[in-house]
Design brief:
Strands 1-2 form a two-stranded antiparallel sheet. The chain is built from five helices and two strands, in the order αααββαα. The mean pLDDT is 93. It is mostly helical. The chain has a single domain, classed as Four Helix Bundle (Hemerythrin (Met), subunit A) (Up-down Bundle).
Length: 154
């Protein structure tokens, strides 16, 4: 499997996991708003990194406020945007660098491969926070383990 195919598979999993989290948050909507805030951050950060890769201006704040419907729309849009981006990618593009400024205004340069890896790990990290918060609040979090997604055909 080429590394570009690996990333396509991982981003498909990521989209599936975000949809699973949305469903769990919707089921427990009467509880704290924190899970939705964290999910909005995941989605906004994914937009931000894709915009950085494409050398486009930032379109969303890092910590936006989304309702469930906006979260669902953002998840669907991001799935399409990442698929389009990855479908255009050749294996050699992964070692290219992209320059950007972080939220503190500091200039950095990273490889495309490192950015893609960061996006996936950042999302998984915050989905873990969502699951922990939901469990603490007496709710049932989404089961988003990668192997579960594979078993589900995701």
């Amino acid at each position: 499997m080429e590394l570009t195919d690996y990333f396509r598979r991982q981003f498909a999993y990521d989209e599936w996991a975000n949809r699973e989290v949305l469903a769990a948050v919707r089921a427990g909507a009467e509880a704290s708003a924190r899970p939705l805030q964290l999910l909005a951050h995941i989605l906004s950060a994914q937009h931000l990194w894709l915009e950085r890769l494409r050398q486009q201006p930032q379109s969303l704040p890092v910590w936006p406020e989304f309702n469930l419907e906006q979260g669902e729309a953002q998840t669907a849009e991001l799935g399409r945007l990442w698929r389009d981006y990855l479908d255009e990618m050749l294996p050699a593009h992964l070692s290219r660098t992209t320059s950007y400024k972080n939220s503190k205004g500091e200039a950095w340069t990273s490889t495309v491969e490192d950015v893609l890896t960061h996006v996936l790990m950042h999302s998984a990290y915050h989905r873990g926070q969502i699951a922990s918060h939901m469990r603490t609040s007496g709710q049932t979090p989404a089961y988003t383990d990668f192997i579960h997604a594979v078993r589900q055909g995701g």
